[in-house]
């Protein structure tokens, strides 16, 4: 993967306040540059002075002059402390499996750097600067899929990042080439760091991996729930449903904010629909009410929105946190604590996986109604050109169903599991990293399910001609066609059309076209 050209993206300066989720996405996904504000460097220097003052104290201080975890009772002499930090990072860089995505590693490194910039960790400025330098040079440590229990921080993933800062292990360079870390650092003009007291520990003791994946997920889900509203509007329209149930006064009787927002989107997307106007007369439409998957779209989509809002509030509190153990307090004490436990983040990652599964489930049900001649109100079986000779979109729904079934399994919470570790010192863990990994897979599945609903609804709206859809839904259909997704006709190789629809959802093309048409 080529390094993203970040020249047009505003740089992110750390130490001027908590990061925003937009800044994390800009660095992780778009390659924005990072820097350390003067106040951050001063805070880093001040906390480092505390660590150095305590380094010669005959009283043991965890992480400065002791071992770690179940080995914390051993006092480490001064001459062995550099080796202590190297050994910590090397031994904890114990991940296994395939490398995780570049954007996840970059988010994780940025969030750890953000904690360093608070001045609560006791690292030296050179250690913070190597992380900034690696991010700006597009050097991405190879972090493995498995290894974090989500407690004592995302230990193994963060250790692989710290290992690269030492000039050990492997990285992907700015061009995506996998190389030894020392070579990539040298070519970027960066010097590997030799960690002093506490520094290795400070780099691996945080929730940065799971938080980074949460922030990326929230960014994607905000777009996907809007796109799901659009898909639902196209399905209601294509199945000759009614928009009367989306009226603001009806929604206000149950004042959930997400529900109100989704209903407002549905009303906007369906405004001025010729198809809906054709059957508003009670004499021409005898249906009293639509199926739940159509009628209850605001309630389900709205609950997803409210879950996203709750997860966002947790993410914002986590972004404002300084997570390390031990931590340098505001009055210069070095104190052990439990703030590294990933429960707050792990819970909302699991909540979101449940919401994602249900949003995909209702989308698949709307798609299925289009294909059943007994329920699609005058459309051809499976929207096929010549039913019997052609199968139409029959198997596209199978693909949706397979994904939805997978999403239901992924909705099983990871955060209710716990496996004791470190000789029972770390006897309750969050599994937040695992929750984040499965949420990423779930979001990919949701994107595919919603894309297939859009593809199906677009074909149905074409088949309703000469009746004209709403300006917004017509723009969505046109955007799909311009993207290369074919309209009605004899059977074609279907997988490429689905892939194109997925891409048009992922890059926002369809949603933006519909929004533009609404003015």
TrEMBL record:
The keyword Lyase applies. It comes from the Bacteria. Pathway: Amino-acid degradation; L-histidine degradation into L-glutamate; N-formimidoyl-L-glutamate from L-histidine: step 1/3. It is found in: Cytoplasm. Coiled coil: none annotated. Keywords: Histidine metabolism, Lyase. GO terms for molecular function: histidine ammonia-lyase activity. Its EC number is 4.3.1.3. It catalyses: L-histidine = trans-urocanate + NH4(+). GO terms for cellular component: cytoplasm. GO terms for biological process: L-histidine catabolic process to glutamate and formamide; L-histidine catabolic process to glutamate and formate. It is an enzyme of class 4 (lyase). SUPFAM superfamilies: L-aspartase-like. Belongs to the PAL/histidase family. This is Histidine ammonia-lyase. The lineage of its organism: Bacteria, Bacillati, Actinomycetota, Actinomycetes, Sporichthyales. The gene is hutH.
């Amino acid at each position: 993967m080529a390094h993203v050209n970040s020249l047009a993206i505003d740089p992110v300066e750390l130490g001027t306040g908590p990061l925003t989720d937009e800044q994390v996405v800009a660095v992780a996904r778009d390659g924005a540059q990072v820097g350390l504000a003067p106040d951050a460097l001063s805070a880093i220097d001040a906390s480092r002075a505390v660590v150095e003052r305590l380094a010669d104290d005959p009283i043991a201080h965890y992480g400065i002059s002791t071992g770690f975890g179940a080995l914390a009772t051993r006092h480490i002499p001064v001459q062995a402390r550099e080796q202590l930090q190297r050994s910590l990072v090397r031994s904890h860089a114990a991940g296994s499996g395939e490398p995780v995505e570049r954007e996840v590693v970059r988010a994780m490194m940025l969030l750890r750097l953000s904690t360093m910039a608070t001045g609560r960790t006791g690292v030296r400025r050179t250690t913070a600067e190597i992380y900034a330098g690696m991010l700006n040079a597009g050097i991405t440590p190879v972090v493995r899929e498995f290894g974090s229990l989500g407690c004592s921080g995302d230990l193994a993933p963060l250790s692989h990042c710290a290992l690269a800062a030492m000039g050990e292990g492997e990285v992907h360079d700015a061009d995506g080439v996998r190389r030894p870390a020392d070579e990539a650092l040298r070519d970027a003009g960066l010097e590997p760091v030799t960690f002093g007291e506490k520094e290795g520990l400070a780099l691996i003791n945080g929730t940065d991996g799971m938080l980074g994946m949460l922030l990326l997920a929230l960014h994607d889900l905000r777009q996907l729930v809007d796109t799901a509203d659009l898909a639902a509007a196209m399905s209601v329209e294509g199945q000759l449903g009614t928009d009367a149930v989306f009226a603001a006064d009806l929604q206000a009787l149950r004042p959930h904010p997400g529900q109100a927002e989704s209903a407002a989107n549905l009303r906007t997307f369906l405004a001025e629909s010729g198809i809906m106007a054709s059957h508003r007369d009670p004499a021409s439409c005898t249906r009293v009410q639509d199926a739940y998957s159509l009628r209850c779209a605001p309630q389900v989509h709205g609950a997803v929105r409210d879950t996203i809002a709750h997860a966002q509030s947790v993410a914002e509190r986590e972004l404002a946190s300084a997570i390390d153990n031990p931590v340098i307090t505001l009055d210069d004490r070095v104190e052990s604590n439990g703030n590294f436990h990933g429960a707050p983040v792990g819970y909302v990652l699991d909540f979101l996986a449940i919401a994602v599964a249900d949003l995909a489930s209702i989308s698949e049900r709307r798609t299925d109604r289009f294909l059943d001649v007994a329920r699609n109100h005058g459309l051809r079986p499976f929207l096929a050109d010549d039913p019997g000779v052609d199968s139409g979109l029959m198997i596209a729904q199978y693909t949706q169903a397979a994904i939805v079934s997978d999403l239901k399994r992924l909705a099983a919470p990871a955060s209710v599991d716990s496996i004791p570790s470190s000789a029972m010192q770390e006897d309750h863990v969050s599994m937040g990293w695992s929750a984040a990994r499965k949420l990423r897979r779930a979001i990919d599945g949701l994107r595919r399910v919603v894309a297939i609903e859009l593809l199906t609804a677009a074909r149905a709206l074409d088949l309703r001609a000469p009746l004209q859809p709403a300006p917004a839904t017509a723009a969505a259909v046109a955007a799909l066609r311009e993207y290369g997704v074919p309209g009605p006709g004899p059977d074609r190789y279907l997988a490429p059309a689905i892939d194109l629809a997925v891409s048009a959802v992922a890059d926002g093309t369809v949603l933006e076209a519909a929004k533009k048409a609404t003015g």
